[in-house]
Amino acid sequence: MAPGIFMFSLYVIFPIFQSIGLSFYQWDGLGEKTYIGVENYIELLDDEYFFISLKNNVIWLVLYILAIPAGLFAALFLNQTVRGIRIYKSLFFFPFVISQVVVGLVFSWFYDPSNGLLNVVLEGFGFNPVAILAEEDYATYGIIAAGLWPQTAYCMILYLTGLNSVDPEQIEAGRIDNARGWKMLWYVILPQLKPATFIAVVVTVIGALRSFDLISIMTAGGPWGSSRVLAYYMYEKAFSEYGFRMGYSAAIAVVLLAIMMVYIGLILYRLYRDEKGY
Amino acid sequence: MFPTPIERTKPSTQRLYKIALPISIIIWLLPLLAVALTSIRSGVDINSGNYWGMPTSINFFENYTAVFTDSPLGYYILNSFKITIPTVIGAIVLSSLTGFALGVYRFKLNLLVFFLFVAGNFIPYQILMVPVRDLSLSLGLYNSVWGLVAFHIAFQTGFCTFFMRNFIRALPFELIEAARVEGVSEFKIFWYVVVPLMRPAMAALSVLIFTFIWNDYFWALVLTQGADSMPITAGLNSLNGQWIANQHLVSAGSIIAALPPVLMFFLMQKHFIAGLTLGAVK
Lengths: 278, 282
Prior knowledge:
The complex is a heterodimer. A two-stranded antiparallel ribbon of chain A has the order 1-2. Chain A has helices at 2-22, 39-45, 48-64, 67-78, 85-97, 100-111, 117-124, 139-164, 168-176, 181-192, 194-210, 213-218, 230-239, 246-276, and strands at 25-26, 34-35. Chain A is 72% helix and 1% strand. By secondary structure, chain A is mainly alpha-helical. Chain A has 14 helices and two strands; from the N terminus they run H-E-E-H-H-H-H-H-H-H-H-H-H-H-H-H. Chain B is flat. Chain B is mainly alpha-helical. In chain B, helix 5 (73-104) packs parallel to helix 8. In chain B, 48% of the residues are buried. Helix content of chain B is 73%, strand content 0%. Chain B has two domains: 6-68; 69-276, MetI-like fold. Classes of the chains: A mainly alpha, B mainly alpha.
């Protein structure tokens, strides 16, 4: 067990504390580190772009959750036993297996203002073309839509597995009691899908807070920083032409970590409760 | 079964469902189909803006060979394999050991260590960026395949340990007890009793980790520079920057990049889904 713990501490646990420590310093990555106390954090409070990123993180979080009901309905739609259904299920799951880089490229072309499919369709209906990724107001939403594509597939597969183990006797009992459609779903099926829902929420929230790849590929944070999230902003501050401000980047990291810790705490609490049940 | 099996519904509903299925799948995969179509177009089509009409000629062979001859794509793919395969092996080996220790022995800090693995696995990994890059620089692993491998093994060990430990907990503990009574050493118990039983878990994890690592883009960006050690994900993005007017080639590259995980998924579907949905049922 020792090597596993050693590697994990070296590359994961220890760097977390290094990041926290670094956030109190000013450092360009090469020269001397200078201790500046909480100045990085004070600067954050005045940084307009930090708040834009934070706001975008919230938008990501809220909209990303839509993948859960969408995945549920896709699962309900596909939970049949007609011929060839396995192929359909696999194909629906496809987007999740593909790299986010490819998803990002695919969707940037999809949104392309001159030749993208979206605008070809829009023009077909007589609308003006929109350059989604070049508009400050739309860029984030455009990226989230791309992110929802694989995430919905993921939630769908979770629910398909969950639906497999729903107790058929309870459904029959529900049918006898005249429960149908929505009522059946709400009162009989969903309570039994609770474990699947829990996992779906966990992975979706983590996915939303980690979002980086799509933003980097599709807009690089633009236009004018309007589609950055915290994870992307800290990367820019540390490693891009705007950056080499390691301490400031670390301060952003600490904020993101703090948000995440609340959530990780909840997950661990739940795990702890389950463990005590043994 | 819920919803009502389609065989038990009205014939009209059944027919509707059978039509709706292929239509919905086409819409769902439309962006991908578009890329596949673009990847066989000729440069002439791309330049004249013919993205959606009939291709004037099918350049399947030309485009896919051009991608390999005109760009370091072949290198990138090789790098991806060089990163992915050692990571899968390393993470599985480490995590079966940690999983075994956490699953079998009851010591005081057991739960704490376990929670540390789980929590570490959930953090937004971007916060590790600056320290991990420094660490790689000081170990001389920056911009090398092994730097990425080392980090990926360490990070994936968190998730794999979680998985392995729960899997081992679900095994019949009596087996281990019985072996102990017989006086079998702990290492032999691990090797001859537990490892054979863990095969399904290992298979599931291998497929999952392969896909995760193959698709990693962030760490490739932070820990590599240039074509020497860049994997396909980062490579594809830099090609996209260079080949602005050559969308057909970038499309072909995308399809190639997507192929290994997709194949993996189709060949090992059962394991893949088993790994992904662990815990989705009680």
